[in-house]
Write a structure and sequence with these properties.
Elements: H1 5-31, H2 37-62, H3 73-82, H4 91-101
Length: 102
Amino acid sequence: MPATNEELEHRLATLESEVGRLREQVTRLTTGRPESLADEMIRRAKESQAALSAAWDKAMRDMGIADVEPIPAEELQQMMLVEGIRPEDNEFSRAIIQAREE
């Protein structure tokens, strides 16, 4: 079955991107110009992003929270009131301040 125009355009874009990346590497090697620390960090981050995202998704699934929707702030505040947490007590702020002082 022949490839569609969209498939060919996607494959061409991928190929052009790869050729551009290879040209940059050849230029660095032939000019002797080392990659800057910032460029290296960005390159490594991009290279590891897929693995990092996969690990994050797996961790969320393992904890059973992969498909959990966030709770609206108002609903969370109501749940806290039901549990006896009074906003005027500032328990969370106090705990943060105490941790900073340690």
